[in-house]
Design goal:
single chain; alpha/beta; Cobalt-precorrin-4 Transmethylase, domain 1; 3 domains; 5-stranded parallel β-sheet; 5-stranded mixed β-sheet
Length: 272
């Protein structure tokens, strides 16, 4: 059986009893970084007096996960195997999903334990009350790709959750400010750690607060959705237009803040 084990995102006391039991019984550790996992086990041993006796540590990260899935065919999955991210939930902006899919397709028993997650924790701290939100993870590093993605995000009606590194968080605020300097943003730094900080304001004001220097720690950035502005057309107006379905879908996409493909697939039967 393969158990996907969440680990604390900062504060060791956030580790669950189930997680410790799973780690204690593990024969094989699949680790995003074996050094980080070994350090975590050592800390748990010191804090909670728990011992671990795995047969093997195997490195499984975003660059070799697909290759590792092929090797799974030769591994005895009747052993107690755990997959451990460096911090937070496996498969959420971390490797693991390909292994889960392999387990499903090959009827290999697996489980995912609940635990700490920076995106959900930050959203609960943000004060945004929308029931829908999007998790985007990290933006692309290349400038034009980042701007293209940000433009899409800022045109969506949903709250969007991003992860950002300390090297680029100020750059991100500058980019958002150029596109929409009135948008409300919540930012959380070093969640659950000693120097945890949270901020909520417009990008311009946040830039003044943070300054231009490189920031320390990992960040979660939550961008409020595009405000609703009344529409000149509604769905019934578009439905009755003498236009091909694909053109109607494009208009609905603008109206709903979704892609034409989604509009076509979801609303096609209603507009034909």
């Amino acid at each position: 059986m393969i158990t996907f084990v969440p680990t604390p995102i900062g504060n060791l006391d956030d580790i669950s009893y189930r997680t410790i039991k799973a780690l204690e019984g593990a024969e094989v550790f699949l680790c995003e970084d074996t050094r980080v996992t070994k350090k975590l086990l050592n800390l748990i041993n010191q804090r909670f007096d728990k011992s671990f006796n795995p047969k093997e540590f195997i490195s499984v990260h975003s660059h070799n996960e697909a290759e590792f899935v092929e090797k799974l065919k030769t591994i005895d999955t009747n052993q107690n195997i755990v997959f451990v991210s460096d911090a937070g939930m496996p498969c959420i902006s971390d490797p693991g999903a390909k292994i889960v899919e392999y387990c499903i397709k090959n009827q290999i028993p697996y489980d995912v334990l609940p635990g700490a997650n920076a995106a959900v924790t930050a959203y609960a701290m943000s004060g945004f009350e929308h029931k829908e939100f999007l998790f985007f993870g990290f933006l692309p590093h290349k400038e034009q790709n980042r701007l293209d993605e940000l433009k899409k995000i800022l045109n969506l009606p949903f709250v969007t959750i991003l992860y950002e590194s300390p090297k680029r968080v100020v750059q991100l605020l500058k980019e958002i400010s150029k596109l929409d300097d009135t948008r409300e943003i919540f930012m959380a730094k070093e969640l659950s750690k000693l120097y945890q900080k949270v901020f909520k304001d417009t990008p311009q004001n946040l830039l003044k607060t943070l300054g231009s220097k490189e920031q320390k720690g990992e960040w979660v950035v939550i961008i409020d959705g595009k405000p609703s502005v009344g529409n000149l057309l509604d769905f019934d107006d578009i439905k009755d237009l003498s236009l091909p379905p694909k053109q109607k879908a494009k208009l609905i996409a603008k109206l709903k803040g979704i892609t034409p493909k989604v509009a076509y697939e979801v609303y096609l039967d209603k507009i034909q």
